[in-house]
């Protein structure tokens, strides 16, 4: 078997793959993007949701189940800011995702901030800040 000579993805390229996955209706963070020892942190996760998931298989299962359980069609993904850091492995992204809840037809936008570390083309650390209460309200069609 020939060795893989494709250059490793940069953090920005990984973020763009994540964006494309979201807009395609797939889990945003897939196992193909993750290192074996990846750690995902969700500091503001709502009650009943994990704040930390470790390991490629666990992350893949979590993101696949989350996407399957999320009755939303994503219409827009707007990158507000993408910051390079002094560490070439790390970027900070501020973005908004707009979607339509399939059950209610309600359209809403949710803001996110992501701190992403990519090593050798694979995600090793993903720390996402989101307003999970606002997301739940948007799914229900409630106003803030």
UniProtKB/TrEMBL annotation:
Record organism: Actinomadura fibrosa
Pfam families: SnoaL_2
InterPro entries per the UniProt record, alphabetical: NTF2-like_dom_sf, SnoaL-like
Protein name: Nuclear transport factor 2 family protein
Domain of life from the UniProt record: Bacteria
Stretches assigned to the SnoaL-like domain: 16-126
């Amino acid at each position: 078997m020939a060795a893989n000579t494709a250059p490793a993805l940069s953090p920005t390229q990984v973020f763009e793959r994540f964006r494309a996955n979201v807009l395609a209706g797939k889990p945003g963070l897939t196992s193909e993007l993750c290192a074996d020892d990846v750690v995902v942190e969700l500091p503001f996760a709502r009650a009943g949701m994990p704040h930390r998931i470790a390991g490629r298989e666990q992350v893949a299962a979590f993101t696949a189940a989350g996407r399957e359980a999320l009755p939303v069609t994503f219409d827009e993904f707007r990158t507000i800011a993408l910051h390079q850091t002094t560490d070439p492995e790390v970027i900070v992204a501020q973005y908004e995702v707009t979607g339509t809840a399939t059950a209610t037809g309600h359209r809403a936008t949710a803001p996110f901030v992501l701190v992403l570390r990519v090593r050798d083309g694979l995600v090793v650390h993903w720390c996402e800040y989101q307003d999970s209460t606002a997301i739940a309200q948007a799914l229900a069609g409630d106003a803030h």
